Amino acid sequence: MMLPARTVTALGLNSALAAIGTAKGQKVLTPMGLAHSWALGVMLWASLGWRGWTTCVVYLIGGSAVTKVRKKKKEALGIAESQSRGGARGPENVWGAAATAAVCALSTLRWPASSVLLRVGFVASLATKLSDTFASEIGKAYGTKTYKITTLRECKPGEEGGVSLEGTVAGVGGSILLTAYAYAVSVVGSRAVVPCLLAAFIATNIESVIGAVAQGGWLTNEVVNFIMTVIGACVGVALAVTLGV
């Protein structure tokens, strides 16, 4: 049985990029993280084409770039992202961030009649994760005061459940960046922009509450990230339905 042309393209493109990354000694992903990113890339291109694939690439590039902001300061404080492996992301990071997006993307193949809402879920989940990454990394780099979201008492930068004004503003900026790109390449329409942005804001704040009161043990940072993206996707779809998208 012949594979669909889009799937063949997905396999070829992502395999080529993985090979080039390996040859050049890329540091963004661990070897296993690269393998899992390859699988994610194939899923996204095969389901949503280059538009969905590049939307996820925007998340990856934006998230990777912001982790490098004032990196030496973060390392000195012991709050740098994945510090034990130089900031490289592994499989748990890949799926914690993008499993929800992958499910939404693949579901468009199974339920094409619901494609519009599934695309909203796809974008909302990625906007949520990029918002969280921007908020965390900029907050740790530039936040003047950090407060526990559950008590509003001052806490240390990088502490679970900690939020800062600088980080919150940056988080909104991250969601705008991701959603604006998705709209620009027609993954979602103009009426989906507000639901995606509101969903990202709501979900990231819920994530901070979860981090403050429950994170630990099996509830790792990656599991919390996955829960957050599910919330972002669900809220985005619910708002889209409410607003008649």
How would you describe what is shown here?
This protein is mainly alpha-helical and 245 residues long. The chain has helices spanning 5-23, 31-67, 71-77, 91-110, 115-142, 165-184, 193-213, 221-242, and strands spanning 146-148, 154-155, 162-163. It has one domain (5-242). A three-stranded antiparallel beta sheet has the order 2-1-3. Strand 1 (146-148) and strand 2 (154-155) form a beta hairpin. The longest helix has 37 residues, at 31-67.
User: What is the terminal separation in angstroms?
Assistant: 37 Å
Number of discrete helical segments: 8
How many separate domains make up the residues? Answer: 1
User: Structural class, please?
Assistant: mainly alpha
Please write the string of helix (H) and strand (E) elements.
Answer: HHHHHEEEHHH
Q: What is the gist of this entry?
A:
By secondary structure, the protein is mainly alpha-helical. It has helices spanning 5-23, 31-67, 71-77, 91-110, 115-142, 165-184, 193-213, 221-242; strands spanning 146-148, 154-155, 162-163. The chain has one domain (5-242).
SSE order and pairing:
Elements: H1 5-23, H2 31-67, H3 71-77, H4 91-110, H5 115-142, E1 146-148, E2 154-155, E3 162-163, H6 165-184, H7 193-213, H8 221-242
Antiparallel strand pairs: 1-2, 1-3
